[in-house]
Design a protein that fits this description.
6 strands, globular, Glutaredoxin, alpha+beta, 16% strand, 4 helices, two-stranded antiparallel ribbon, two-stranded parallel ribbon
Amino acid sequence: MERIKLCAASAREANLGVLALFSNYDETAAAVSSFAAVAELAFDIALDPGNAFADAYRATRTPEAFLMDADGKVAYTGAVDSSTWPAAENLPFLMRAIAAVSKGELPKIERSLPFGTVIRRSADDETR
């Protein structure tokens, strides 16, 4: 979570908006708000009812990053970085993409494979 918060801070410093969407079918506003408070998230959060965003952008995992450029086009999508654990050799995909987009450039890496928990779109996903 700390690496996500660092990326969000970097994006805000570059005048880029940050929004965390919660796309699991069973997430409630109360649960998401409580999580955000405990995790001390300093950026906007919202539910993704009916998985509208997740479906439109083909999101499959959480966390999965989508960075938009000034024209509202996806400039980067994928993992925050290359590991589930902090390490010196991590490739900071999202942080590098934020730096590029903040200068009006395309990221050198525009897509990486997201990893994490599969987004649960319905109760059927609980049994898979």
